[in-house]
């Protein structure tokens, strides 16, 4: 249970605008779990594994990287593509009333006025006057809470959280500064506590559009994909002849100037969202909200995540436009954290776009015989966070062998349908016609599956390499293959080997890695 019952991603002020951001929930989760060193070791192992085996690299690493920005490597991009594909298919294939779009990252600046992001999509910032270093006020407090916890001072930790949350709820920035001073939180560079006032910093990245500097308009990199869906609501409804209730799904990049980078790809400045806005009759929102909650939880379980590693976290303090909001959380090595939000957003966004654009955002409901601005239930998932969830869940270290041969085996227990490489083909030796047979199998199957063909090094080492990237099946071509056209298939998790006919391979692999295996579990 969290101590702090506030929205996961935002603290909303009382003005029209809902988006003062603040990551209370991270804070709350830390406050409850603490950051135990073994958990940090587990996260460190996962990060190191991701880098070493081609999943995720720090961005522009040769220049020492760019904080909170990451690149996906050869296996990372395959895994992420599979993840996005299964989300896309879940939305658009399983639900005949959900269609997709791909809106531009740049949008008219008024979009962000209407959505509330221009005025209040903020984090509370504070600078040390001596070092000129900038900090997020919430993170400074968060670190102090963690210190109290590590030192076993739970009472102090709890009361600091409480005090801080109260101040943030009433947006008392002076109070937050006083708290930082009272706690004597110092800048690590100067070891002084000479701080500026706490002030909000907008998280949107801006740039200029236009060829002449004087004429250029300031525009923003979208901080959420959702607005591309809202502004296209009528285009989609009319051109795809959709009837309420219907949904619009989109996968795309979003950008937030997160000041404090933490926990690897959990909090990035450039990340990917998989969002679906579901347009419904006003008044129907609670039943749709409940349905989408369950469907989305099922989806995460269908990816192979055990039920006890997932939970709902209700937002107890709701934004004024929302009448229900919940996070789906996964138990990362650093505690339960949000991977997806389900929000009942009323007619807030469409209503504001209607006001600002002076274009009707209404739907004529033939059954009711009247016009209305639809209400919206959104499901908003982060592709990168779910990627990290998959890696965290899949990363397995186990002892194998007996006696002197005992050793640790590391492998990724990824759902076969999501694995970057579906099968690897290995001739036992690099001679006697075995490579030719291996190549032939590869050439026949490469149209259906992402495969690897390898003939270098011992077969044991080749198996290990595939285990490390989560390849579900390894196919070995040996001397018996030349006699009876059979090969062995080695299963990743059990390491069990089975002899099968070459002609059966397409069917065996296909059954194992079909995305349909996941889709069937969702509904
Ligand atoms: N349209 C609603 C919306 O954007 P959000 O809770 O701010 O809601 C939704 O974001 C999801 O996007 C989160 O559950 C998370 O998975 C992902 N997300 C948000 N900020 C992120 C960041 N800085 N880095 C990675 N993923 C992020």
Report on the architecture of this protein.
The protein is α+β, with helices and mostly antiparallel strands and 523 residues long. Helix content is 37%, strand content 25%. It has 18 helices and 25 strands. The strands form 8 sheets. The protein has a 7-stranded mixed beta sheet, with helices on both faces. A hairpin with a 7-residue loop joins β9 (206-209) and β10 (217-220). α4 (109-115) crosses α12. The protein is globular, with a radius of gyration of 26 Å. Residues 1-35 have low confidence and may be disordered. It binds glycyl-adenosine-5'-phosphate.
Mean pLDDT over the full residue set? 90
Number of strands: 25
| CA gyration radius, whole angstroms | 26 Å
Q: Give, in spatial order, the strands making up the sheet with the most strands.
A: 5-11-12-18-15-14-13
Termini separation comes to 29 Å
Beta fraction of the residues? 15-25%
Structural class: alpha+beta
- Summarize the amount of helix as a percent range: 25-40%
User: Runs with pLDDT <50, length 5+?
Assistant: 1-35
Quaternary class: single chain
**What's the tally of helices?**
18
Largest sheet: 7 strands, mixed
Give every kind of bound small molecule, once each: glycyl-adenosine-5'-phosphate
Jot down its keywords.
37% helix, alpha+beta, disordered N terminus, seven-stranded mixed β-sheet, five-stranded mixed β-sheet
């Amino acid at each position: 249970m969290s101590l702090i019952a506030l929205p996961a991603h935002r603290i909303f002020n009382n003005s029209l605008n809902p988006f003062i951001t603040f990551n209370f929930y991270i804070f709350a989760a830390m406050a409850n779990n603490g950051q135990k060193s073994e958990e940090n070791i587990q996260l460190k192992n996962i990060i190191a594994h991701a880098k070493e085996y081609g999943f995720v690299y720090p961005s522009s690493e040769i220049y020492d990287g760019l904080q909170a920005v990451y690149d996906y490597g050869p296996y990372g991009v395959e895994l992420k593509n599979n993840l996005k594909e299964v989300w896309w298919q879940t939305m658009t294939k399983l639900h005949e009333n959900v269609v997709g779009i791909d809106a531009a990252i740049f949008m008219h600046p008024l979009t962000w006025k209407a959505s509330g992001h221009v005025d209040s999509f903020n984090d509370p910032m504070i600078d040390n006057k001596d070092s000129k270093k900038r900090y997020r006020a919430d993170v400074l407090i968060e670190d102090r809470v963690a210190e109290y916890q590590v030192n076993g001072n739970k009472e102090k930790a709890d009361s600091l959280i409480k005090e801080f949350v109260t101040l943030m709820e009433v947006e008392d920035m002076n109070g937050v500064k006083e708290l930082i001073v009272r706690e004597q939180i110092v800048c690590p560079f100067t070891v002084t506590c000479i701080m500026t006032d706490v002030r909000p910093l907008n998280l949107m990245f801006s740039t200029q559009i236009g060829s002449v500097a004087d004429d250029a308009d300031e525009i923003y990199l979208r901080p959420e994909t959702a607005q591309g869906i809202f502004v296209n609501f009528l285009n989609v409804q009319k051109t795809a002849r959709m009837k309420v209730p219907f949904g619009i799904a989109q996968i795309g990049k979003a950008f937030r100037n997160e000041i404090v980078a933490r926990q690897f790809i959990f909090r990035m400045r450039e990340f990917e969202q998989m969002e679906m806005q579901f347009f419904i009759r006003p008044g129907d929102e609670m039943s749709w909200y409940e349905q989408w909650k369950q469907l989305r939880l099922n989806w995460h379980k269908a990816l192979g995540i055990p039920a006890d590693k997932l939970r709902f976290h209700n937002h107890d303090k709701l934004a004024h436009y929302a009448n229900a909001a919940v996070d789906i959380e996964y138990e990362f090595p650093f505690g339960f954290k949000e991977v997806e939000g389900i929000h009942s957003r009323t007619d807030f966004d469409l209503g504001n776009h209607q006001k600002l654009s002076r274009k009707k955002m209404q739907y004529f409901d033939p059954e009711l015989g009247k016009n209305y601005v639809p209400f919206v239930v959104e499901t908003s998932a982060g592709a990168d966070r779910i990627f990290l969830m998959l890696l965290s869940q899949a990363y397995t270290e186990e002892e194998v062998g007996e006696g002197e041969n005992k050793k640790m085996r590391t492998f990724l227990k990824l759902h076969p349908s999501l694995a970057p490489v579906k099968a690897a083909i290995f001739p036992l030796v690099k001679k006697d016609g075995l490579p030719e047979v291996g190549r032939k199998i590869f050439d026949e199957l490469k149209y259906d599956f992402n495969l690897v063909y390898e003939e270098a090094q011992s077969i044991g080492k080749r198996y290990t390499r595939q285990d490390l990237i989560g390849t579900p099946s390894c196919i070995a071509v040996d001397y018996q293959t030349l006699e009876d056209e059979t090969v062995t298939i080695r299963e990743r998790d059990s390491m069990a080997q089975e002899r099968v006919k070459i002609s059966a391979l397409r069917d065996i692999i296909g059954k194992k890695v079909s995305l349909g295996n996941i889709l069937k579990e969702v509904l």
